[in-house]
From TrEMBL:
Pfam families: HbpS-like. GO terms for cellular component: TRC complex. This is DUF336-domain-containing protein. SUPFAM superfamilies: GlcG-like.
Length: 180
């Protein structure tokens, strides 16, 4: 099923525009929970073990769950590396992978990272930024590990598109009662 996903664009301009298109009016734990469950259900349907993680720049975890059993301990470490990359540079890890052709050494040299500091970041796809109107920088990072770079990027993209459709077509009963 994941093989049926189209290949993502490798144009940095298009990737940057795509990332900015997912700007929220606000981002809460409820948003993270819904996005996380969309991802978990999609990965379970594809019979793909992965870890889904959504966190804030303050390192507060909003959602963290395996899609199904079978994840490796390395996936946990990769989650932290991808989240740190997204939160520091404000782009998806796939964007940075395209910019440096997947070469983490070149990435580290370009940004002047010390050898030990390079181990904190990753340019493997699977990390995506969340932006909020009126907030400078990245509001949260949505990350999956256990799925390869291009596929991970497309799974994240499809989940965020599905969430946008749900958000645009759904009015909360609580919100309709309080908005006049």
């Amino acid at each position: 099923m994941l093989d049926a996903l189209p290949s993502p664009t490798r144009s940095l301009d298009d990737l940057s525009r795509e990332e900015r298109a997912f700007t929220f009016a606000h981002f809460t734990c409820e948003h993270a929970w819904v996005i996380g469950n969309i991802l978990r259900n999609a990965l379970r349907t594809a019979d793909c073990p992965a870890i889904i993680h959504i966190s804030l720049p303050s390192s507060q975890t909003l959602f963290h769950s395996p899609s199904m059993p079978g994840c490796m301990p390395d996936d946990e470490a990769q989650i932290q590396r991808k989240a740190a990359t997204v939160l520091r540079w404000g782009h998806s890890t796939f964007y940075l992978s395209c910019k440096f052709n997947g070469d983490e050494r070149r990435f580290g040299e370009h940004y002047g990272l010390a050898t030990d500091e390079r181990a904190k970041y990753s340019v493997e796809g699977g990390g995506y930024p969340v932006f909020v109107k009126g907030l400078e920088g990245v509001a949260a990072a949505v990350v999956i590990s256990g799925v390869e770079g291009e596929q991970a990027h497309m799974v994240l993209l499809k989940a965020l598109e599905e969430y946008r459709e749900l958000r645009n077509d759904f009015r909360s009963p609580m919100r309709s009662a309080t908005v006049k």
